[in-house]
């Protein structure tokens, strides 16, 4: 091979190498964009919601009587009753999105919903990630179990299995205060009750208001522990920093007190379930003002 041909082949190799390098650089991912894609989605402002004509609210679809889907495929319950009114007061339509206990914070932070009205108990840990509005209900924990092996004290759960839903205050409370109790955890409330019904656990704990409603409808089960832990509150939540929407909800809750709105909500959605078993004053909060007497 002549010296001239060798020189030409050498130049061709250099050119091909440079082309591959340039092509590789051009197709390399932009790491800054990848990082930004994992950041929390910007919230929709109050003005954005009004211009769109629709507010998106995260609610439960399987937690009667607070948030559930009826036989006609419609959302119903105590939380829904207020969600409908909130949308009306905003002058927009409402779109409900079904959430699970463990993904309520995520759905706000990623902008999948504007508001959470899914029986959301206010806790310091959650308040670091979302902004809570004024409360509209009081709640504590309860424990339901079969009549034949009724649990009336947390100490009776030692060596037994307690069913909880992931991401709930019940999971947090028992993990912290009774670490020796075995917890059987599920994502959805339908799964927790099915586990209790078929004997996979000895008892189930969640909000006392909810287990009481379930026990009234399911013979053979009783809420042996009616109030456990602190008396907490349930409130709407918005994405962190969405002050305009937060202020509107707070003002709305205060104004509704003049109508005794949440007592009407109770009469329509909860009294048919509880009957005389519950005093509405132990549950309902009007105008965001909590009275624990």
SSE topology:
Layout (H helix, E strand, L loop, with lengths): L2 H25 L3 H7 L8 H7 L1 E6 L2 E2 L3 E3 L5 E2 L1 H13 L2 E6 L5 H6 L5 E2 L7 H4 L2 E3 L4 E10 L14 E5 L3 H9 L4 E5 L2 H9 L5 E5 H10 L3 E14 L2 E3 L3 H14 L4 H9 L1 H4 L19
Parallel strand pairs: 1-5, 1-6, 9-10, 9-11
Antiparallel strand pairs: 2-3, 3-4, 6-13, 7-13, 8-11, 8-12
Explain what this protein looks like in three dimensions.
The protein is an alpha/beta fold and 293 residues long. It contains 12 helices and 13 strands. It has helices at 3-27, 31-37, 46-52, 78-90, 104-109, 124-127, 169-177, 189-197, 208-217, 243-256, 261-269, 271-274; strands at 54-59, 62-63, 67-69, 75-76, 93-98, 115-116, 130-132, 137-146, 161-165, 182-186, 203-207, 221-234, 237-239. A 5-stranded mixed β-sheet has the order 5-1-6-13-7. Strands 10-9-11-8-12 form a 5-stranded mixed β-sheet, sandwiched between helices. The chain has a 3-stranded antiparallel β-sheet with strand order 2-3-4, covered by helices on one side. The model is unreliable at 2-11 and 17-38 (pLDDT under 50).
Instruction: Sum up the overall morphology in one term.
Output: globular
Terminus-to-terminus distance: 102 Å
Q: Helix tally?
A: 12
Number of distinct beta strands = 13
Order of helices and strands: HHHEEEEHEHEHEEEHEHEHEEHHH
Helix content: 25-40%
Strand fraction equals 15-25%
Oligomeric state, counting identical vs distinct chains: single chain
Low-confidence stretches: 2-11, 17-38
- What spatial order of strands do you see in the largest sheet? 5-1-6-13-7
- Radius of gyration, taken over Cα atoms and rounded to an integer in Å: 26 Å
Q: Main sheet, how many strands, which sense, barrel?
A: 5 strands, mixed
Mean pLDDT: 88
Which structural category do the helix and sheet elements fall into?
A: alpha/beta
């Amino acid at each position: 091979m002549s010296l001239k041909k060798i020189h030409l082949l050498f130049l061709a190799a250099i050119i091909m190498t440079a082309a591959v390098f340039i092509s590789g650089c051009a197709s390399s991912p932009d790491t800054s964009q990848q990082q930004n894609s994992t950041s929390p989605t910007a919230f929709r402002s109050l003005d954005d919601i009004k211009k769109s004509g629709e507010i998106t609210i995260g609610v439960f679809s399987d937690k009667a009587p607070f948030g559930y889907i009826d036989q006609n495929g419609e959302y119903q319950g105590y939380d829904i009753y207020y969600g409908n009114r909130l949308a009306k007061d905003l002058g927009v339509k409402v779109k409900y999105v079904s959430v699970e206990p463990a993904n309520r914070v995520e759905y706000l932070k990623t902008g999948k919903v504007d508001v959470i009205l899914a029986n959301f108990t206010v806790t310091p840990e959650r308040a670091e990630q979302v902004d809570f509005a004024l409360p509209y209900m009081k709640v504590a924990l309860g424990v339901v179990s079969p009549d034949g092996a009724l649990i009336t004290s947390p100490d009776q759960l030692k060596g037994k299995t307690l069913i909880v839903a992931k991401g709930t205050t019940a999971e947090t409370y028992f993990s912290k205060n009774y670490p020796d109790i075995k917890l059987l955890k599920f994502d959805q409330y339908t799964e927790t009750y099915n586990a209790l019904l078929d004997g996979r656990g000895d008892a189930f704990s969640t909000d006392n208001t909810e287990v009481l409603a379930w026990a009234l409808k399911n013979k053979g089960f009783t809420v042996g522990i009616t109030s456990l832990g602190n008396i907490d509150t349930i409130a709407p939540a918005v994405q962190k920093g969405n002050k305009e929407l937060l202020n509107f909800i707070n003002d709305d809750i205060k104004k509704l007190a003049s109508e005794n709105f949440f007592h009407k909500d109770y009469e329509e959605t909860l009294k048919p379930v509880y009957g005389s078993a519950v005093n509405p004053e132990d549950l309902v909060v009007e105008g965001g003002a909590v009275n624990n007497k």
